[in-house]
Design goal:
Order of helices and strands of chain B: EEHEHHHHHEEH
Radius of gyration of chain A: 28 Å
Helix content of chain A: 55-70%
Strand content of chain B: 5-15%
Strand order of the largest sheet of chain A: 2-3-1-4
Helix content of chain B: 40-55%
Distance between the termini of chain B: 38 Å
Structural class of chain B: alpha+beta
Strand content of chain A: 5-15%
Oligomer: heterodimer
Number of helices of chain A: 12
Largest sheet of chain B: 5 strands, mixed
Distance between the termini of chain A: 55 Å
Chain lengths: 326, 192
């Protein structure tokens, strides 16, 4: 009999995608098996010597040694190039979930096609470098000199993308020093944490909570912005509002002092959370604007809130635009 | 010595009338007239901005659409305009208008017929009306009114009767519409 998962767990699984989790889990199981098999077939050092006629040992360690002795292609240790190839394959296998996570968690606007390829290739190169350098201090210094001479400058689309670069380097580094188990742990940890951060939109929804924790008690939280919107892909604002996330509403008014009490009366009633984000004075090209971050009540919705603002704010409110940027 | 005369803003000619395709209440605070071509990519981009303006202004905005098919550069534009007019005959102008702007890359006759079917139109009647000379005359009348109003390309917008010459960018257009909505006018750009 299987226990029914709690609603919170069901929601989390649904939003990340049941297929995503199952595929990742299956991938790690298959990849782990493949790497274990490869490590037995292509041992770095001489395989344990077990007499061919010896009976199968009964202990787990003994069984592994027996298995490695039976299947090893290079009983005296794999040649250097084969060993390097194995480490590189391991690096690629373990970095692919990172690339998959990147594709899954980035929106169309934030997505950087070249970064996916970079994340996959980077550990291969790092592994190769470490295989070449090995324990040679002289080679390490030479490498540092070469790297210093070449300018590697690139602007990432998102600051968070740097984490993927570091993750790929970490996996390459671990593979290069024959620590595939560490690379595997890094890969799994990275994917789990990154998916969790993405799923819970960590810090965006809890900015005010953190502010409450960090600021003195009774501090004014009006200046702490509500979570930022998702990128401007339509119908982002409506979807965000439907999801219970905040939306930036730019409200066009005739006179700020007359419109503001009317607007805020509606917001106090129809929004779960709201805060004044900016007050833009009249310009040559437009009317005064009051920009609010709002999270409409689910029972009202963004369209209901907008309609109430226009009706109850009349004649001072003429429009309420859910544009994500100023 | 020559004096520089201020150039008058071109005005809509003729003003909005019942024959126009209009969405929104007649008494709206601001009337936005759009001259557009269903095959023009800039009109497709403007369509999204105008849809956002419709949502933002609600009943404060009335949108009026007039055809301005650029037949030389857009071979499907006139046919698409006729298709919209034929849909209007069955009360489905705006759904057809939205569908064609969302699928500007597919405006062949069979595509238009598919859209008509999707909108549950009487397709036989729709096809007959689309082929009528009077339907094309209706489109060409809009084109002529655009030329009289100073339309040189698409999309061209008129806010409360006066041509809007700014960029059709969300923030700027919203600002211009809001300013027009707050100014006293009679809906055609004239002071009351």
């Amino acid at each position: 009999m299987s226990a029914e998962p709690s609603p919170a767990v069901r929601v989390a699984v649904r939003e990340i995608g049941r297929h995503t989790l199952v595929r990742l889990l299956g991938y790690y199981v298959i990849a782990g098996g493949l790497l274990l098999l490869l490590s037995a077939v292509l041992p770095q050092n001489a395989a344990p010597t077990v007499a061919p006629s010896a009976p199968m040992p009964s202990t787990m360690g003994g069984m592994l040694d027996w298995f490695r002795g039976e299947v090893a292609l290079f009983p005296n240790g794999a040649p250097r190039w084969v060993d390097a190839l194995f480490q590189m394959i391991g690096a690629v296998v373990l970095v692919i979930p990172l690339a998959f996570t990147y594709v899954r968690t980035r929106t169309r606007v934030k997505f950087d096609h070249s970064l996916v390829q970079t994340v996959i290739m980077l550990p291969v190169v790092v592994t190769a470098i470490l295989v070449v350098v090995r324990d040679s201090l002289a080679l390490a210094f030479s490498l540092a000199g070469i790297v210093a001479a070449v300018r590697f400058r690139n602007n990432l689309k998102e600051s968070g993308d740097a984490v993927y670069i570091f993750g790929a380097i970490g996996i390459g580094f671990a593979s290069g020093i024959h620590a595939l188990s560490v690379a595997a742990v890094l890969s799994i940890m990275f994917v789990v944490v990154e998916l969790a951060l993405w799923k819970f939109n960590f810090s965006a929804d809890f900015e005010r909570t953190f502010a409450r924790l960090c600021l003195p008690s009774k501090a004014d939280l009006a200046g702490v912005a509500e979570p930022a919107d998702a990128p401007p892909e339509k119908p982002t604002a409506a979807a965000a509002a439907a999801d219970g996330k905040s939306t930036r509403l730019r409200i066009y008014v005739d006179r700020v002092e007359a419109a503001r009490p009317l607007i805020e009366t509606v917001l106090a009633r129809d929004a779960k959370r709201w805060s004044l984000d900016a007050e833009e004075p009249t310009t040559e090209h437009g009317a005064p604007v009051l920009a609010y971050r709002v999270r409409p009540r689910k029972s009202v919705g963004l369209e209901g809130l907008r309609s109430n603002l226009l009706r109850e704010g009349a004649p001072h409110v003429v429009a309420a635009d859910d544009a994500p940027e100023l | 010595m020559s004096a520089t005369l201020p150039l008058a803003t071109p005005m809509l000619d003729p003003p909005v009338a019942p024959r126009d395709h209009a969405a929104g209440p007649a008494g709206a605070r601001v009337t936005l007239v759009e001259y557009a071509d269903f095959e023009c990519p800039s009109c497709g981009a403007a369509h999204e901005v105008i849809q956002a303006a419709r949502r933002a202004f609600g009943d404060n905005l009335r949108l009026v659409f007039r055809h301005f098919p650029l037949r030389d550069s857009h071979p499907h534009a006139l046919d698409a305009a006729r298709a919209a007019e034929a849909a209007a005959e069955q009360g489905q102008f705006w759904p057809m208008h939205d569908r064609m702007f969302q699928r500007q890359h597919a405006l062949e006759p069979e595509d238009l017929a598919r859209y008509a079917r999707k909108l549950d139109l009487d397709v036989v009647r729709w096809g007959r009306v689309k082929a009528l000379p009077s339907t094309e005359e209706r489109v060409l009348a809009d084109l002529a009114s655009g030329r009289r109003s100073g339309v040189r390309g698409t999309p061209t917008l008129f806010i409360n009767g006066a041509r809007y010459d700014g960029p059709i960018e969300r923030g700027l257009l919203m600002g211009a519409l809001a300013r027009a909505a707050l100014a006293p006018h009679d809906g055609h750009g004239r002071e009351p």
